[in-house]
Specification:
By secondary structure, the chain is an alpha+beta fold. It contains 2 helices and 4 strands.
Length: 153
Amino acid sequence: MSKGVLQNQKGVTLIELVITIVVVGVAVAGILAAFTLTTGKSADPMVQRQAIAVAEAYLEEILAKPFSDPDGVSGETDRDLFDDVLDYDGLTDSPPQNQSGVNVAGLNDYTVNVLVVTGANLGNPAVNAHRVVVRVTHPANGTVELVGFRANY
């Protein structure tokens, strides 16, 4: 055997190295794309859950009020004076507020709209109830809507 020929050749050729780099590059790009998609959407459930919590709080507050006005004065304009369900009709808060009218920290992107429909407008004048619709909107995650009923019992 001649001395110029290597018997145990170790290492890789340039073509093998380029193919390996391309394969690894494609694999890494796919993994990064999956991470990007996952991380980009990871806040959506939290935003939606927060919107549901806000809507639940408003709906609970409204449905806890009496069906009809206890003091005979309707149309109170300050939320801390609202004393019946109908006072909330048309309420819009952006950002959401507590019952005293103080903005809730960290919810600046949310908007709350309240609609109260009386029994006569529900399609049956004999129904003695109010339908309360609370819509909470967030620009990144759409609208959450909760509906509740307050009967006169």
